[in-house]
Amino acid sequence: MRAVVFDLGGVLVDWDPRYLLRKVMPGREEEMETILADVLNHEWNLARDVGDSWPDAIARLKAAHPRWADIFATFDERWAETLGGSHDDTVEILRELKTRGLPLYALSNWSAQKFPLAEERFEWLDCFEGIVVSGRVGMVKPDAAIFRHLCETFGLVAAETIFIDDHEPNVVAAREAGIDAIHFQGADALRRELQARGLLGHGGPGDRPPVGGPGGPLAMR
User: Fold this and answer.
1) Largest CB tally within 10 Å, which of 20, 124, 197, 221?
2) 35 in a domain, yes or no?
3) Pair (165, 64) in one structural domain
């Protein structure tokens, strides 16, 4: 394998709108869950991820659900508070792969208007040689087009690429595109999957030469 591609939310980033909504709706847990299920749900967020305007979308929500207008406004203005932080165990794996010289990329469904908030917060994004953000390219996972875009943009060979994602439909779509995809179910399981592929050793960082270095797989091309 010549490259590893990470999803961000759920794999490296702990994102949950409840982190914010519990602050602005204290004691209204049932109502909050109704909003998340019926309004600010996966389909609504996916539309933002494909590039739909946040201001326009929030305006439509306020008109359709005026009793929650203040909540929607706060959700937009304080969206950064939906980011709980990094999944540190997975970030550790990312850094180990970087140390071994593997080319690393990210492919994420994320709003172009909100992604700069992540860029400001997560310094480990510098580990990636390239990042495809759905809202910037107008395509979202699990559409096959975004996997083609990823490979064409960075010159990746699908059969020589590993993709890691916590959302199973994205994993299935990546496999259909010829990519070796891993369904992320925690850092420990991911480490075992990468060890089985020979990309991480069993004794911690530094127990094998970097990819492309003397004796590394790329030396045999």
Assistant:
1) 20
2) yes
3) no
Q: Which two tokens stand for residue 77?
A: 């203005």
Q: Are residues 8 and 26 in the same domain?
A: no
Instruction: Tally the C-alpha atoms within 13 A of residue 204's C-alpha that lie toward its C-beta.
Output: 0
Range of the domain at 53: 16-83
Count structural domains, the chain: 2
Give CA separation, 123 vs 56, 91, 117, 202, in Å.
31, 11, 11, 27
- Report the run of H or E that residue 131 belongs to, with start and end: strand 130-133
Place 2 in a pLDDT band, splitting at 50, 70 and 90: confident
Given a contact cutoff of 8 angstroms between Cβ atoms, the answer to whether 164 and 170 are in contact is: no
Beta carbons within 8 Å of 136's beta carbon, 6+ residues apart: 51, 112, 115
**Amino acid at residue number 138:** G
Q: What is the pLDDT of residue 116?
A: 97
Give the bridge partners for 13, in sequence order: 9, 86
Return the exposure string of 191-215: e unless at least 16 CB atoms fall within 10 Å of the residue's CB, then b: bebbeeeebbeeeeeeebeebeeee
Contact 24, 71 (CB under 8 A): yes
